[in-house]
Design a protein that fits this description.
By secondary structure, the protein is an alpha+beta fold. The chain has a domain of 118 residues: GAF domain (Beta-Lactamase), CATH 3.30.450.40. The protein is 34% helix and 20% strand. Strands 1, 2, 3, 4, 5 and 6 form a six-stranded mixed beta sheet that branches. Strand 1 and strand 2 form a beta hairpin. The chain is globular, with a radius of gyration of 30 Å. It starts with 30 loop residues before the first helix and ends with a strand. The relative contact order is 0.12.
Length: 203
């Protein structure tokens, strides 16, 4: 409505077209949020230090073992098992068409003796065989539930449930298999914040 004097006023009952003010949150992070961030950063730092220490240990063993490969294999295997929180592990080297035990970590005595006297062939019946056959990372969450797995000694005297196999490749050809296992159903290295699935090891 136009009032006297020619000025215009908003019609009573209507809001003027003014831009809405946006509320800016000024809430500071809570103590719980800050504690959570500190916990995450502390865990990441601890894991980074573990990896650096492990790398240093392996390099020292390599420098001291110029003419003896066994200490190097044992140290690499033990270090990987520790970093991934694995219960047991092994390193299998190709010998002709088969793969034989070259190093073991925390294996039950009966299972260690069994593996050292049992060459494994490429195939889907074992983690080593499947990794060698496919030339890629193989992770089996529960070998007892895997229909192709056919070595009962693993769940029997080895007490293995979850297993991971990593191929050792030379010019894209498997020359060995590095495997880690847990004696319970749980993915390898679960719970680590900066862990990712490993890649095939190329020599």
């Amino acid at each position: 409505m136009r009032q006297r004097g020619g000025s215009e006023q908003p019609v009573k009952g209507r809001r003027a077209n003014r831009p809405k003010a946006h509320k800016v949150s000024s809430a500071a992070p809570s103590v719980a949020d800050l504690q959570k961030q500190v916990s995450i950063l502390t865990r990441d730092l601890k894991e980074s230090l573990e990896y650096q220490t492990a790398t240093s240990d392996v390099l020292q063993v390599i420098s001291r073992s110029t003419f003896d490969l066994q200490p190097v294999l044992d140290t690499v295997l033990a270090t990987a098992a520790r970093l991934c929180s694995a219960d047991i592990g092994g390193l299998m080297r190709r010998d002709g068409e088969a793969y034989r035990m070259a190093a073991g970590y925390a294996l039950p005595p009966d299972y260690n003796a069994f593996l050292r006297n049992r060459p494994l062939l490429p195939g889907r019946d074992t983690v080593t065989g499947r990794t060698a056959l496919e030339g890629r990372i193989v992770h089996i969450a529960d070998i007892a539930a895997d229909l192709d797995y056919a070595m009962p000694e693993s769940t029997g005297i080895g007490k293995i449930r979850t297993s991971l196999g990593v191929p050792l490749l030379r010019e894209s050809e498997p020359i060995g298999v590095f495997w880690l296992a847990r004696q319970r159903i749980e993915p390898l290295a679960s719970g680590r914040s900066n862990w990712s699935a490993p890649s095939p090891i190329r020599l």
